[in-house]
Amino acid sequence: MPPQILLTSFTTWLPHQKSNSSDDLIAKIHELYLTNSDLKLPLLTVLRRLPVDTQQASNYVISKITEIQPNAIICCGMAESRSQLTVESRATCGNIALRSPIDLEQLIAELSVTQISHDAGKFVCEGLYFAVLNHITTQKLNSHCLFVHVPILTDENIQQVTKDFILIIQRMALL
């Protein structure tokens, strides 16, 4: 059976936001997955437009993890102030930090618009990432989790961001 990956995105949370770039990217990836058999993506399950509420979002995602038991989870959120995709190395809650066990340097090697971040934002993104990493650890699941922050998508960056993200998905499927 091919690897299964769960992709998640959030809805907007501020009045000026017409959309959430994480959701826009996931929608684009899902459309490509459904329409392009040459893309060579693993089995994808998409959980879009999560509420911008840590407890609700975490409950939805953990419920879906329990249901489908994916090999990997890639949670995505929008980072309006960033110009590149960023993979988060850790999530903190209070004095506890949970680190991604994924070799992030290897994961992003040769990607053109992706870098590693050590600050998941202290908002719902970090809360969700912490909850999922904690769930995987406490339940001793054989899944890998990654949080990716997506910059505002523009005509200038959409193709390269999409290309990098597809490579991240493909590499996560090999873990």
UniProtKB/TrEMBL annotation:
Keywords: Hydrolase, Protease, Thiol protease. The keyword Hydrolase applies. InterPro entries: Peptidase_C15-like, Peptidase_C15-like_sf. One of its GO terms (molecular function) is cysteine-type peptidase activity. Signal peptide: none annotated. The keyword Hydrolase applies. It comes from the Bacteria. GO terms for biological process: proteolysis. It holds the Pfam family Peptidase_C15. Transmembrane segments: none annotated. Belongs to the peptidase C15 family. PANTHER family: PROTEASE FAMILY C15 PYROGLUTAMYL-PEPTIDASE I-RELATED, PYROGLUTAMYL-PEPTIDASE I. This is Peptidase C15. It comes from Chroogloeocystis siderophila 5.2 s.c.1. The lineage of its organism: Bacteria, Bacillati, Cyanobacteriota, Cyanophyceae, Oscillatoriophycideae.
